[in-house]
Amino acid sequence: MVTRRRLLESGIGGGTALALAACGSSSTGTADVAPPAQIKAGSTLIYWNDMAGAYPGIMTEWATRFEGKTKVKVEATGGVADYGNKLVGAFASGSGPDIFRYLQENIPMPAAVERNMLMKLDPYVKRDKYDLNDFRKDSIALYQWKGSLYALPRDYGLQLIFYNTELFQREGLQPIPTDWNDKTWTFQKFQEYAVRLTKPDRYATFVPRGNRLWGSFVYTNGGAIVKKNDGTATEMALAEKPAVDALQFMQDLIYKHKVAPLPTEEAGLGTPQALLQNGRLAMWITNPGGNQNFKTVQGLPYEVGVFPLGAGAKRAVGGGGTGWGANATTKLPEEAWAFVSYIASKEAELDEVRIGQTTPARISVGTSPEYLAAPPKNAKVFSDGQEFVTRDPIHSKWPDVSRDVLTAIFNDQLWSGKATAAQLTKEVKEKGDPYFKS
User: Fold this and answer.
1) Quick one: DSSP state of residue 355?
2) Rounded CA gap, 91 and 56, in Å?
3) % of the chain residues with pLDDT over 90
């Protein structure tokens, strides 16, 4: 057995790696304290992640470092295809991984808890006095349910705009503001810019169709996707005027102002990244992770700015994050906690910064020189924007509503231009509300 004392003596404790040393109590809930830690050297953890690209390499690094300190092997599998379905299927069959990237927008916290997918972390946080203070409080809140903590934050994302500065200069346009409290960069100004930037061989923007993206237009226009009671969704709110107006604004960008391609044309044009690089696209609305596509392109003239402000009193954009969860039925709970606490550490988050794969949940990483290093010059807009995030609706049936109601109706009617926002949102409410009553 490897005890907690031996882990500390090996240099894993303190503020790095497993972070098992006392750093100030920040426990959540009223959970009992876990028994003294005893790591089983020679045991093996199964670790899943859907992210591909450079990520599997980082996962292997983490596994190697962890094994070197604890003698616990980690079988890391990155780039898992059809991740959501495979993860749910594995848990249903009793063969879920010990550690996994948990996406609360795909498997809401109530559903994950009901399915016994996530191990309660409070006993370990309390026992080890594991410091949660460096995590954004709103990122921690994503993984709390009924007073208990079920995962540690990996990131905390949002939506903003990347743009080609050379095209802006060519059209005599001022840079997009970087102050999230700016009142001049509005829907109207965004539309005016888009019209100026659109040319026969260039689109101003793509109209984004993911929930958090179109949701950002709704939120910043003073609207909401759902109504809530004690934080849990109770009915759809998209048929109300602020939401309707925001969705109609998006549809008009395609069909009335013609500053964005038809959804059916997008695939044939190429990726937004490539189009922005070659000057055939002026603006790309996405999350800060998009920076990994540009940062390594030598001499690319790009910058980043805030999301446009609608009729709302202040900006609000869709977002949240993903977390690191441990299987509630793992046979190696102590080892799983040790690995989760390691891959959520500052050291691990900085590894992700190195490969451009995160919008840090840790405050110290989001404000670090490594994360804010140019390009873009205005990288601070990434972490500043985290204060303006509206999290996804909370309900165990939310993925069903998203898939079977919102995506189905929007694809068929909104993005195709077949119906106005006012018409289709009535259908959204009629078909969506029953999910919250069952």
Assistant:
1) T
2) 22
3) 87
Structure tokens at 371: 């994360």
pLDDT tens string 241-261? 999 999 999 999 999 999 999
Domain boundaries, the chain: 2-156+320-361, 160-318+384-437
CB 242 within 8 A of CB 311: yes
End-to-end Cα spacing for the chain? 48
pLDDT at 411: 97
- Distance in angstroms (rounded) separating the CA atoms of residues 330 and 31: 19
User: How many angstroms separate the CA atoms of 148 and 414, rounded?
Assistant: 39
Instruction: Count Cβ atoms within 10 A of the Cβ of residue 342 and give its class: 0-12 exposed, 13-18 middle, 19 or more buried.
Output: buried
Strands 99-102 and 302-305: unpaired
Token look-up 């960008």 returns 253
Report, in angstroms and rounded to the nearest whole number, the Rg of the chain calculated over CA atoms: 23
* Entry field: residues in the chain: 438
CATH T-level topology, domain 160-318+384-437: D-Maltodextrin-Binding Protein; domain 2 (3.40.190)
User: To the nearest 10°, the Cα dihedral for 81, 108, 318, 326?
Assistant: -60
pLDDT above 60: residue 24: no
Question: What is the CATH topology of the domain spanning 2-156+320-361?
Answer: D-Maltodextrin-Binding Protein; domain 2 (3.40.190)
